[in-house]
């Protein structure tokens, strides 16, 4: 998987460098330095793609390093590797790669909302500064996962806490505010794609708040091994990243096939939104009452929120199943449309002959 993703990012980086000259220019550094006008800044999608290319190549390199030295150690046990360094590299890989999913998926927000509103989402200097800050911060915030490791150098833990607060804000604020402004008084005609994309802005914004609370050392020591963490993560991913992905799916299905959405799809949107929110809140409440995560059994006083989460989780599965069914219908509708078009073209050629 790592090699596959690395090839993807190397090819993405190659294309950006070929088009814009360097990854720095892909982030708009020449615009920030005044060498190029703001009007000539790279598209928002390119800026986001450049950021993800940089951070995920770094993450994959860190993860590959740990895997390689572990394999060498298996072959030759005399070869040793500092376990604290190995743990840091592992968390650097895992946190960066997981965090970057939102920055990959946010491309759909920039593209789809601008098309649906008829308003171009152009990069300006605050936008470029925010993405540059996020590029740097995303690569060095992972130590907030190591706050309970007393052997970690103190300055790294402090850096991890401070940047954890700072990391979520630049791009989030720019994107969430931009989404509100691009939709405001635009006369947008809402459909499943744009509705899911707009929902993702709520999920991203709401999910960052409990994450920032947990990144504080005094809170982290109490809350990090509770269900507070899956609460913020499910909100960030379930109502954020996954909503972006299904929003993109509905957008493609609408624009690439004759398939239409129906009342069942709209019902699935409402069901998924409310039930996923219920799952997230159940986790957060469990964390607030100190329910530990990764425990095989629960005490009776922990069971209330867990039962609510289980019930809402069933509804999440139902909503997602309807989304997936729509995608399968799209694939078949697209294939039928292509077949019909090909047959019609052959018939026209035959008639012309």
Explain what the structure shows.
This protein has 353 residues and is mainly alpha-helical. The chain folds into two domains: 1-189, Cytochrome c oxidase-like, subunit I domain (Cytochrome C Oxidase, Chain A); 212-347, no CATH class. 78% of the residues lie in helices and 0% in strands. The chain has 13 helices and no strands. The chain has helices spanning 2-20, 23-26, 29-32, 44-75, 83-117, 125-140, 154-167, 169-183, 192-214, 217-223, 228-256, 263-288, 303-352.
Which architecture name of the largest domain does CATH use? Up-down Bundle
Average pLDDT figure: 88
> Which geometry do the CA atoms define?
globular
- CATH H-level superfamily of the largest domain: Cytochrome c oxidase-like, subunit I domain
Percentage of residues in helical conformation: over 70%
- What is the CATH topology of the largest domain? Cytochrome C Oxidase, Chain A
H/E order of the elements?
HHHHHHHHHHHHH
CATH top level assignment of the largest domain: Mainly Alpha
Low-confidence stretches: none
Q: How many distinct beta strands?
A: 0
For the termini, the CA-CA separation is 51 Å
Strand content: under 5%
